[in-house]
Design a protein that fits this description.
Number of domains: 2
Order of helices and strands: HHHEEEEEEEEEEE
CATH topology of the largest domain: Immunoglobulin-like
Shape: elongated
Number of helices: 3
Structural class: alpha+beta
Radius of gyration: 20 Å
CATH class of the largest domain: Mainly Beta
Helix content: 10-25%
Length: about 230
């Protein structure tokens, strides 16, 4: 059990240095649990302690805001709130971007680009859902892996939607024509997601989180609604 804890902690620590923070979180937690159990059973005390320490450091990297993430707008004609560069880990507020504005995201040397290409209100409702939102939106977005050795995967779990009343919305189980996929360097993915809000709005904010466990978004999009 102590060996298993050590292996999980090593994997969790190494993965915490990549973009797969969610996988690292699971591995580190499992390593800590196994390490504690092995300690209680007095099996491989030294190995258990090393495993727990490594897993704790992995968790620190997972939840650390200072992960070297920079966000840069690739649009040369941006002005005002659509500032060209934002180093999110060192600033209180993220910059605001608009529709069809391509932003480059660099995470410790791994670069990819993200663009919100469309948003429109949907009249369809899922008859099996218990949610009763005021509005449901179909959102088109595109992302391209520029130089990341790890695959890039962006889904509705990386986004939070906020209505004009400042209330956060949620994902909604309507069907889409294009689903997100893992992509390697040089590959582009055009995808869709469905989000909803509880208050009627003419525009919404869309927060993007490279690491869904971060407390601050890496970029915020302000989008007008197309009826």
């Amino acid at each position: 059990m102590s060996i298993a804890a050590l292996i999980l902690s090593i994997l969790g620590f190494l993965i915490s240095l990549s973009i797969f923070k969610d996988l690292s979180l699971i591995l580190c937690v499992l390593a800590i649990v196994l390490g504690i159990i092995a300690l209680v059973k007095k099996k491989g005390k030294v190995i258990c302690i090393i495993s727990i320490v490594l897993a704790v450091f992995g968790l620190i990297f997972v939840f650390s805001e200072n992960n070297g993430t920079t966000v840069t707008s690739n649009n040369s004609n941006t002005s005002g709130n659509n500032s060209s560069t934002s180093q999110n880990t060192n600033k209180e507020e993220t910059k605001t971007y608009g529709l069809n504005e391509e932003i480059a995201i660099n995470v410790s040397g791994n670069e990819y680009v993200l663009t919100i290409t469309g948003i429109q209100e949907m009249k369809e409702r899922n008859q099996f859902s218990e949610k009763t939102p005021a509005q449901v939106f179909l959102i088109d977005y595109t992302y391209k892996n520029i130089s990341s050795e790890d695959t890039i995967y962006i889904s509705d779990m990386n986004f939070k939607i906020i209505d004009e009343q400042g209330e956060i919305g949620d994902a909604y189980p309507n069907d889409t024509e294009r689903s997100p996929q893992n992509i390697t360097a040089g590959v582009t993915c055009k995808s869709q997601m469905v989000l909803c809000v509880n208050n009627e709005s003419s525009k919404v904010k869309l927060q993007y989180f490279d690491n869904m466990f971060n407390s601050k978004p890496d970029a915020t999009f302000e989008l007008d609604i197309v009826k």
